[in-house]
Design a protein that fits this description.
mainly alpha; 9 helices; globular
């Protein structure tokens, strides 16, 4: 009863109904996000007849394809890695993003020009080399080499 009481208080505080909470979305989350690739997740979301799924699809499509694929690879690989290695990878990936153009482009579009129209280095998820992303996340591809492969294909 204590946990249920806490959940009820939090729902009341944030104004969410049971349908807005993750447990109510378990089935659709499982159908959509159990896929092995981001591209398949996007296809699964597109096939769902749900406002929630369409909102998630819109969100993913608004983000940098490179960043989405790196985040996906990092999360999927993390289940088999010790916490200290995950944190080390986090640091290396943040260095990679700071050296590349995607972060700067996101800041430009959201905070500087405020046009909310970023010109990402890759137009589509399919354009990003998944194998190179996985190697970067594992630390097998040095960030300076990854920049040449994974960044700035649009200038």
């Amino acid at each position: 009863p204590v946990i249920e009481s806490m959940i009820a208080r939090m729902k009341a505080r944030i104004g969410k109904s049971d349908d807005d909470l993750i447990p109510a979305k378990q089935d659709i989350i499982g159908r959509c996000f159990a896929a092995d690739t981001v591209e398949d997740i996007v296809e699964n979301l597109a096939a769902e007849d749900s406002d929630w799924a369409q909102d998630q699809l819109t969100l993913i499509q608004s983000r940098s394809p490179l960043s989405v694929k790196i985040a996906f690879s990092h999360i999927r690989q993390a289940k088999d890695v010790e916490m200290d290695e995950i944190l080390e990878r986090d640091l290396k990936l943040s260095d990679f993003f700071m050296a590349g153009r995607e972060f700067a482009e996101g800041v430009r579009a959201l905070l500087v020009d405020k046009d909310k129209k970023p010109l990402w280095g890759f137009a589509d998820l399919h354009d990003v080399d998944s194998d190179a992303v996985a190697r970067l996340v594992r630390g097998e591809l040095p960030p300076e080499d990854a920049l040449g492969i994974l960044d700035n294909n649009r200038g």
